[in-house]
Predict the structure.
Amino acid sequence: MNEGTVNSNPPEPIRYDVSLLTGDDLYIFNEGSHFRLYEKLGAHPMKVDDAEGTYFAVWAPDAEDVAVIGDFNGWEKKSHYLSPKGQSGIWEGFIPGVTKGANYKYHVRSRFHGYRADKADPFAVFSEVPPKTASIIWDLEYEWGDQEWVERRRGVNGLDRPMAVYEVHLGSWMRSPDQGNRPLTYRELGLRLAEYVKRMGFTHVEFLPVMEHPFYGSWGYQTLGYFSPSSRYGSPQDFMFLIDSLHQQGISVILDWVPSHFPDDEYGLGYFDGTHLFEHADPKMGIHPDWKSFVFNYGRNEVRSFLISSALFWLDKYHADGLRVDAVASMLYLDYGRKEGEWIPNRYGGKENLEAIAFLRRLNEEVYRTHPDVQTVAEESTSWPMVSRPIYVGGLGFGMKWDMGWMHDTLEYMSKDPIHRKFHHNRLTFRMLYAFHENFVLPLSHDEVVFGKGSLLRKMPGDDWQKFANLRLLLAYMYAQPGKKLLFMGGEFGQWNEWYHEVSLDWHLLDYPLHAGLQRWVEDLNRAYRHEAALHQLDFDPAGFEWIDCNDSDQSTVSLMRKGRAGDDVIVVGCNFTPVPRHNYLIGVPAAGIWEEILNSDAKDYGGSGQGNLGGVEAMPIPYHNRPYSLNLTIPPLGAVFFKRRREER
């Protein structure tokens, strides 16, 4: 970027006496409880005394001076200086003639070490397309069409409601091959993605981080634009259109949000005013060894205000229905990714990050106080207690937590040749020992299909037919388990290739029957999951689940019941993890009558062999598994069957 020449003349004074910051704003900002900072800091186009211009405000307490540079002044560093706002550490000023669409940065000259740098605005709402790094003056005006959705959202996002999440990376879900393989724009995605997700029956879309990030290959997890959606796909209003489109189709939107670390690019947050302003100064606390990125100083009041303002910004301005908080474990543990001697204990001598714990609790408290109809979800990979329990009982206050243990155990089991599975049966059943300790989401996410791990389909053993049967079975077992569901894009139709962010999903595979059949299976699983209360209503309550038989390791078969609040609302599920069909397989059930087969992963429509139970089975008055009746079933090879008692008999 052309930085222009340095003007040796005295700086032009900013003559307009205007400020968005009141004394109360400054007090609660420095106290760490100003959670709408985006209304005060950053660049705000406005009219003052009939002059169109922009009000700028930036926090840089150890700066000697701060100037606004941009394409409006030839990037001159001594042209437009800001003024300090008392002792708050904030610099502010109104510049007439600088309006929406102008590119700008702050030239920060520190009081220490002669440090000076051109910094992007931490509160910018729009940014140049990387690799360019300037902030862009913009507004967030948009005429939303999702009022009906927002009014009924609380009934959709409750913990007793179905939650089948489709995880999406915006740049690689679908591309335009006739235009240089470019990613679709937010507006192009808005109509296509909303229609697809609705047809597939998913209830939620979760976007990998859309916040602006310098390195595309980080998938957004190296965030620098905490208030700016990536300009790679369009403007802020274009991103609003995408969310609006999903809402109008009845789809909730969860945004991945990364308060755990940020990259060290010079134009970003790191060493902002010549001091470690946003990050810890000591590298034993301030640098993540795994990611070589900065760690936020959660004990600094102003940093808490910044981060919680960012979280609420996406809920307030973009109508997001939830936040998935990335890498929570790395925040909770001072020794995360560090060897002995590379970390600093807390004041009690422990490894728990007390400041991060306080921050996460305050974050969840504020989110649910101001938006009781949304959800926060923690990606927390350890056994930290009560992540998804309320703050008032000692929890962290999240609504839900990813069950990483279930994911690891189940994928390890499914990757084994079926002849060996009987020796690893506990991998299937172990999670039920802890399944209700947290409000769990069962994730088959992007992390499982990259870096040599293989796609879900390639993880499955056997020939092509067996791979597809195994994958249908895996998904059936996930939907049968208590907990909400998450599936990364491509898994629903059986990507052969690992996910790669530079190319589109292989949509042409749907021309092949096995791939199309798998997609129909996911669609029908979602439909049953949404419509059958027994499959979702008590996901987080032990009363919603009961094993029928979890001990048949010799035949690698499990059977279970899912239950709704209504006493007679029961779904029975049988899963056979071998390629040998189980004929005359007896399981106990609680009631007489015809039990209809509502789902069968081996149906020919899905690419299966067509073995099943001719639509239903009548319960026999033969006690089995400590239940008064039993069903004589065929459980197909590498298959799952779901049964529900016929309504007129209940």
The chain has 13 helices and 30 strands.
